[in-house]
From TrEMBL:
High-level lineage: Bacteria, Pseudomonadati, Pseudomonadota, Gammaproteobacteria, Lysobacterales
Species in which this protein is naturally found: Dyella marensis
Name this polypeptide is given: Biofilm PGA synthesis protein PgaA
GO molecular function, one term: poly-beta-1,6-N-acetyl-D-glucosamine transmembrane transporter activity
Signal sequence annotation: none
Top-level taxonomic group: Bacteria
Amino acid sequence: MSPAAPSQRDRSVPAKAGAGAGRTALAAALALALATASPQASPQTPATRDALLAQARQQHDAGHRLEALAACEDLLRRWPADADALRLRVRLLAELGAAVRALELARQLPTPLPAPELARLEADAAAHQARWAQAMPADTRHPYVEADRALASPDPAAVDDAIAAADRMIALARASRSREAAGAYQALRRRGGTLPAYADTPVADALLQQRQPEQAIPLYEAASRAQPGPYPEEEADPRIGLAHAYLEAGRHRDAQQWIDRVAVSEPAWLPAPGSVRPRANPHKTEAELAAALVRQQTWRYREAWRRLEALRAEGPANASIWNQLADTERARGWPRRAEDTLVGAAGLDPDDTSIRLGAIDTWRELGDFPRVEPALREVEAVVPRDPQVQLARQVWDRQRGWQFDLEHDRGRGGSPNFGDADHETQATLQSPLLGERWRIYGITRLAAANLPEGHTQRERLGLGLRGYARGFEAYVQALPAVGNQTRRTALEAGLRWLPDDYWTYTLDWSNTGDADVPLRAHYYDITAHSLNVSAQWRASERSAIKLSANADRYSDGNRRYGWEAAWTQRAYTAAWFTVDGGLQAGATRNSRSDVPYYSPSCARWIAATGRLENMLYERYERSWSHQLDLSFGSYDECRYGSGWMASAHYGQRWAPHAGLAFGWGIGWNSQPYDGKRDNRVMLDLTLHWGE
């Protein structure tokens, strides 16, 4: 005799594999069971009502539910009004997964079921209907209708029954009502109740959607211990959810160790009944995708990308692989490449919401703003409860809304350009997007320095217009002088063009040259027409080469021309930690050196650079990071020879929540000017509000 099966089956999943296949398989099994019950009694069939009922109960106790149901149906054909058989049939159907049919028959019983038992059936039926609606909705444009209808029955929470409460939590979670599911779970805990094992995973999913990973982790761990695998194809693997919960709780080492073990333990192929060819194991793919995601979320983009490229080569028809690969490509600075990958993903699964959200993120990054709002509204019309859809709406609303930036720099030293003490502040307030392409903004600049000649300041307040197109951004602004120490109205314009994923070109022009004219020159009412251009080739987040040049026409007749080249290369990457190295070289030439500000007839320099960056803390949009920049090299000035130059800067960035970030840093640099060494220390503060 087979061992007895548990009295409560896992109602968090359908009874059989597949969405449509599950219902078909269950119906076939029930039909087969009923067909075995002959309308005429055989010699082996018990002749009395009590014998038939005893046989049905024995089969049920042994875990043979189909045989028990057949015996029960045989009894009911002879004695249709038998109350015990009617109740047993309801119980058997519920345990076999036919919860809706069981509820229908329960409501037809001549003697109603006790309220707690009926509440269990109602919650069980709601959980099943919500699961089927999630897997295979009758109308893909309205996926919540069936699940909401299933949940429209009275809330059984008033009944002190853990099974009924758990089934309703499952139904709420499957209906994308994770907030209600999480609330019901907290209420159950306050009452001192516990979840049945089959509800651990779906309730943990709801808690994770509500950004409560610490609450979800114990449930995932319990589910993983209770059933370490293997898992049916249609059943959610709690080990995958546990890896996500570890990662979102900031336990990235636990997440990686755990998911790597899971990925290794899962076989790549499973036997296919009725076929000599095996089939791919979806849980193996899910584990590999989660392992790649852990690496991507902890800055190891290249490692994640290589894993996903290998997965795509093995399973080119898997839309989830294409979708996550596109997300990694976007993180590496390849939005157009990601867009092409998403086209392939959409061809494999045109109804996948995450693929559409990925396309929206790509358009936002490319500045292709007119496409964002219509696409996002279309997704919201179908799945407005999806947490990722809601997050995409919040991000887009911040990006297209008001933007505010504040930068303040303060320095001390003996520089001929900056004096003993100097400071500069710039504040910019940008309007929301107008017509999805334009922003109007106000800008103010305040700069001052204590020079040997005396105090000087440069103050401006003005307006600007910024325009956006796909891969292109341009601005024009006018900043009239404020106060009696500033001359002329500054007219400035510039552009930034990204023709592909690798090249970036910039151009900035000003008729006063505030960014290039030192305050010492400003003290003598000197301005300049300045032009700055740059071209950068960026292979990925790991390496880049940039060449920039400038031409300044000073109002005192001086002409300054210069260039600078910079190369950076990633040297080391670990979880939330990177080390970059590089080289920097440049030269400048001035037509006049007999001017009151630093203006060497010629100078050149070369330096080695390095940067260390580390994430100290991250939880969703809240983060705290710091970085250290170092450089050391040689500065050679005509007529004065060469000398060493060095700089160091340490800074931190704190984002308390989405759309708000603070930064601060302290720096030091030393280099010779006209043969005299200058040492300077700086403090910088930044604030950003918006997106």
